[in-house]
Specification:
19% strand, disordered N terminus, four-stranded antiparallel sheet, Rossmann fold, alpha/beta, globular, 10 strands, single chain
Amino acid sequence: MNEVSGQAEEDDIDNDVDVDDDITAFEDSNRDVAAAQQTSDEQPLIEARNVSVVFDDQIVLQDIELQITRGQTVAIIGESGCGKTVFMKTLVGLVNPTQGEIYFDGEGLHHMGYAELTQTRRRFGFVFQNAALFDSMSVYENIAFPLRQSKVVSETVVEESVMQHLAEVGLPKNVAYKRPAELSGGMRKRVGLARALILKPEVVVYDEPTTGLDPIMSDVINELILDTRRRYPVTSVVVTHDMHTARKVADRVLMFYPRSRLDEDESQVLFDGPPSALEHAEDRRVRQFVRGEAGERLTELAHGLSG
């Protein structure tokens, strides 16, 4: 009887060791990612070199030149149709530039094969405008999905990580077993953020993170974006129409303008600077946008200049 009991204890110890090894390996992997993130800041993390995107005969982006350094939170603002979302997609190779090149951590996306580009995309986390959760999966399965797809880890490690990230976005444990349809809009957004962070990405891309939310829940999302930056060494790109979000979370703001309403020699990026300078920008179109003033836009619309 003692021999059986002793064997059972040994089996339990072996199982505990296996789980500990899994957790240790997972933590080591995360430390490796963190170490890579602390590479020299001599080169920008993201760089657009003379990027243009044309669909049929419509110029969406033209001659975009900009750099994003490691650790920045950059808000991209501008009216509908100015190319914000298309630019965001070019950053990760979902849209190929018609002209020019995108570089990530010194490597040109245009030089990458499918496997390398897929690996590069895993260094990004995406928070989609409508959360883009899988309706047929529970919240737990949604958050666990990227981890299960990209790493070989035990279910114990998966559960630990899912629950940790749920807590970090302010959601209770019982939410894990609900379906997305049972959640409010704000809760779905937070689940989307938890899923985006589970692989410890270097860059988090937010597509209209506060759209459709009331002012209080919008500010909850803003606080979570700030908390994410404090908690993890991430670079953030926030595409938004929400000026409160741009002012609160960003340390740099870019304002794009529709190419169709610019003079030939004008840059499509009307503003590039800190949020504090927006109200006093030299370009009146920037001031009008951040203040929500129609200006001459009503006249333009009447003449069919919709952009």
